[in-house]
Amino acid sequence: MNTNVVFPGLQKLGIGVALVNYNLRTSALVHTIITNPLKALIVGEGEGFFQAVDEIKHDLDDLAVYVQGLPQTQLLPGYKSWDDLMHTSHPVPVCKSVRDEMFLDLPCCYINTSGTTGLSKPVIVSQRRAISAYHFIQRLQLSENDIVYTSIPLYHSAALCIGLFGVIYKGATIALRRKFSAHHFWEDCRRHKVTVAQYIGELCRYVLSVPESPLDVVHNVRAMIGNGLRRDIWAQFQNRFNVPHIVEFFGATEGPVVLFNVTNTVGAVGRLSPLLQWFQSIKCHLIKYDPETEEAIRDKNGHCIEIKPGENGLIICSIPEDSSRIGFYKADENANEKKILRDVFQKGDDYFLFGDVLHLDRDYFLYFVDRLGDTFRWKGENVATYEVANVLSKLDFIHDANVYGVKIPGSEGRAGMAAIFLNDSIEVRPHMLDDIYTICEDNLPQYARPLFLRFSREWDQTSTFKQRKYKFVQEGFNQAKVTDPLFYRNEKMKTYSQLNASSLSTFLTKSRL
């Protein structure tokens, strides 16, 4: 049974679908499942999915679990065979009357995102927002003759809403790869005669790291669309692989607006000229902020201050009167509130806070700079610092952990680093390093496991008990600035090893591959 047909099949029945990141395991998987308004869980074939669910089945109460790829005779009590049900169902068309009570503001799906406010949360994607999303790919003038290549998991809003929905809308063809491969990227494009390819995060950097070949320019790709292609490799990537058009976009799954670079301007994620602003119903602004507190700077009247061209600022946008378009989090009012900035330019106005810092140049083009400290991006995935810190704090010798992202030269995004404060000022022991490695291996997806550890002698927090990350982020793993003991993730030895000049050089070389 192909799991890719389940989503549109359920939609034909008027059933909303919550999409779960299949990299999750143990407590993180439980959290994602129980925070979604689920009535049933469908487990796909392969990748150890059934085993992952079976491990946490006791935490799912009476949730119905359907399993693909196994007959009922091979399943334990508490599970139902999806395949058996499909084989015994009648192959008749679905009557449209089952969707009579579907409206534009009802959920199409829930996409679980870490956002910038902690653990994963289900973002409500209404039918209205889903319809709007598949129009985005029309910036490429997609037609039924196009073949779109996606190696991004469909639990990502970019792959699902822009890619799959756009293809369905235009009657085009989509080529899905189960797992991204830099070495097979262009080979796949040639084999399937791909005309449009999607990318995200470091995907383009990985493809660029593959040795050059005369076949690099042998393909039918006329355009690529995605987010995360940075300025330092943009032109090199476009020239080497002869990609005529690249559309970089900026947005958030829960946000009410998406920005697009439709002019092929190297590195830009869109444009914010005063003229364009005049035509837009949803207004975007860049405002000044304090990089240490990560809060907006306000003037003497308590209002936010817009930046000038040439400066960096927090991006915000006005919230539509029809707030259902914002796709806020399901059943998490605290998280919803953190995404709203109030009394911005006048008393009573509300703006959506993306939690990202952008640069505005003299021609009003926008460039992504960074995202605020509670979440960072690595290996094309968003890492919630709160989730990683919770896992580390389970160890009885750790008093607390401050998790953040640090830059690695030559790599896009930020690598995970944890500043750890030990109980009773005890010294670091080898068994502690082994335990930290193991608990991260068992409870976190690969991209979320910290690459660096720093055992801090002094704990730094605000008067409201919020961890200070700014100083740690600025110092990173720079041994000239950090006097605390530093360690790196040593996968060969399955532990964290002491960081020195020699080991750092070797580690950084490997991390860029």
For the structure shown, list the relevant keywords.
513 residues, GMP Synthetase, Chain A, domain 3, 6-stranded antiparallel β-sheet, 15 helices, 27 strands
Polypeptide structure, described:
The structure is a single chain. The protein is an alpha/beta fold. A 6-stranded mixed sheet has the order 8-7-9-10-11-12, covered by helices on one side. Strands 13, 14, 17, 18, 19 and 20 form a 6-stranded antiparallel sheet that branches. Among the domains are: 1-96, no CATH class; 375-511, ANL, C-terminal domain (GMP Synthetase, Chain A, domain 3, 2-Layer Sandwich). α2 crosses α3 (49-56).
Structural class by SSE content = alpha/beta
CATH class of the domain at 375-511: Alpha Beta
* Corresponding CATH superfamily of the domain at 375-511: ANL, C-terminal domain
Helical segment tally?
15
Record the strand order, biggest sheet.
8-7-9-10-11-12
Alpha carbon gyration radius: 24 Å
Quaternary structure annotation: single chain
Write down the overall mean pLDDT: 90
Q: Biggest sheet, in brief?
A: 6 strands, mixed
How would you describe the shape?
A: globular
Strand-residue proportion: 25-35%
Write a compact overview of the structure shown.
With about 525 residues, this protein is α/β, with parallel strands linked by helices. About 25% of the residues lie in helices and about 25% in strands.
Secondary structure blueprint with pairings:
Blueprint: H1 6-12, E1 17-19, H2 26-34, E2 40-43, H3 49-56, E3 64-67, E4 79-81, H4 82-88, E5 107-113, E6 121-126, H5 127-133, E7 147-150, H6 157-170, E8 173-176, H7 185-191, E9 196-200, H8 203-209, E10 223-227, H9 231-241, E11 245-250, E12 259-261, E13 270-271, H10 274-279, E14 284-287, E15 289-290, E16 295-296, E17 312-318, H11 333-338, E18 340-342, E19 350-360, E20 365-371, E21 375-378, E22 381-384, H12 385-392, E23 398-406, E24 415-422, H13 430-443, E25 452-455, H14 470-475, E26 486-490, E27 495-498, H15 501-511
Helix pairs in contact: 2-3
